[in-house]
Amino acid sequence: MFEEMTYESILEDMLSRVTSDVDKREGSIIYDALAPCAYQLAQNYFNLSNFIDLVSGDTAVGEYLDRVVADYGITRKPATKAVRKIITTGPVQIGTRWGLAGTVYVITNYISDNTYQAECEQTGETGNLYSGTLENIDNVSGIQATIGEIITAGEEEETDENLRARFYAQVQSSGTSGNVNDYRNWALEVPGVGGAKVYPLWNGNGTVKVIIVNSNMAIDSRLEQAVYEHIEAVRPIGANVTVESPTSWTVNVNANVALDGTKTLAEVQTAFADNLASFLRDITFDTYTISYAKIGNMLLSTDGVLDYDTLLVNGGSNNLIIGDTQIPIIGAITLTEV
Asked: Residue by residue, what is the 3-state secondary structure of 2-58?
C-alpha cells in the first residue's frame, strides 16, 4: 500500500478534493500551497514502507537485523583475529610486534625452539592471507622472523545472510533440552562456523556427532575444538559429543563449448567455475545428489556460451551421489572451444 502513495498520486488526490471553480493549474496559489504538503506525505509513506522492511526478519539489514534477532537471544558473530605461528632466528620477548603487508602480529606465547604464537592486531581474514619474512617493527636486535601456519583463522564479522539463516534455523526449529536442533544451533553460534549437521545416536545411546564447515561452507578442521568446547559448555549432562569436519567430494567438469563472441574462453571458464562453486556451497548439508542436468543448464546459462556438447561430470554423464558425511567441492574445470 505504501509503495503506491507517490508524490504525484497524493498531490492529484488532494487537488481533486478542491472545488472546480478554483484555479488548480501548476503555479496557482492552491497548487503551490498543496505541493509541499504532498511531498512531505509521500516522504512519510516512503519511510513507513522502509520501516516495515527494517523490522521484519526477512528484510532487515545491518543494525536493524541485529535488533530483530536479539529478541530471540541471537547475536551477530563478531570479527575475530588470526593466530599464527612465527618462527624466529633467536629468542624474542612476549609482546614484540612484527609486520607484513600492512598487518601486524603480536607475540603472545612461546611454543618451542624459537617458535611462537602470535595474534594479528587486525580483525578478519586479512591475518590469514600472508606468508614470508616479517618486518621487525620493534627493532629486536639481530633477530629475523618468518610467519608460519595458521593456528586459528581470523574471520570477518558475520554477514547479514548468515545471521538471517541462523535466525531462521532457530525460530523455525523446535530446539528443546538437547535435541538435534539444539546441537546444530550451538555449533552455528561459534565464530567461523557456517554450517552444521548433527547425527544423534551415531555410535550408540548417548552419542552425538556434529559435522561442521566454515562460513565459506568449506572444510576447516581448526574449528573443531572451538565447537566442541562450546557445545560441552551448554549441552545437557549425559551426552558424549564428537565434532568433526566432513570429507570432500571433488566435482570435475569437462565440456566442449561454442562461444557467442561476447566473452573469451577464459572469461567463460572463470564465470562458470564461480557459478558452480556457489551452487556446490548452497547444497552443502542439504542435498546429496548433484544433478548432471543442472550443471549442463548452468553451463548453457553462462554469459558467452552459445551451446555445448560432450559434457562430462567426473568422467560421466550421470548424477553424482555423495555420502552424508561429505561435501562437494569444485575441482578441475576444463572447457574446450569448438
From this structure: HHHCCHHHHHHHHHHCCCCCCCCCCCCHHHHHHHHHHHHHHHHHHHHHHHHHHCCCC
To the nearest 10°, the Cα dihedral for 234, 238, 239, 240? 110
CA distance 45 to 51: 10
Q: How far is CA 319 from CA 102, 251, 296, 322, in A?
A: 46, 11, 11, 10
Using an 8 Å Cβ cutoff, are 183 and 231 in contact?
A: yes
Give the number of other Cβ atoms within 10 Å of residue 79's Cβ.
Answer: 15
From 182, 146, 151, 160, select the one nearest 84 (Cα to Cα). Answer: 151
Confidence of residue 176 (pLDDT cuts 50, 70, 90): low
Candidates 108, 164, 161; CA nearest to 278 is: 161
Q: What's the CA gap between 197 and 325, in Å, rounded?
A: 9
Of 102, 190, 178, 96, residue with least CA distance to 140:
96
> Amino acid identity, residue 96?
T
Residue 74 per-residue DSSP state:
-
Q: Nine-digit cell at 155?
A: 574471520
d(CA 132, CA 140): 18
Angle at 18 between CA 14 and CA 22, to 5 degrees: 130
Q: What pLDDT, in 10s, does the model give residues 180-237?
A: 889 999 999 999 999 999 999 999 998 999 999 998 899 999 999 999 999 999 988 8
What tens digit of pLDDT does each residue of 253-297 get? 999 999 999 999 999 999 999 999 999 999 999 999 999 999 999
Q: Kindly state the helix (H) or strand (E) to which residue 70 belongs, with its residue range.
A: helix 62-70
**What is the 3 state secondary structure string of 100-167?**
ECCEEEEEEEEEECCEEEEEEEEECCHHHHCCEECEECCCCCCCCEEEEEEEECCCCCCCHHHHHHHH
Amino acid letter, 269: Q
Dihedral over alpha carbons 231, 236, 241, 247 (to 10 degrees): -60
Number of neighbours of residue 198 by Cβ within 10 angstroms:
21
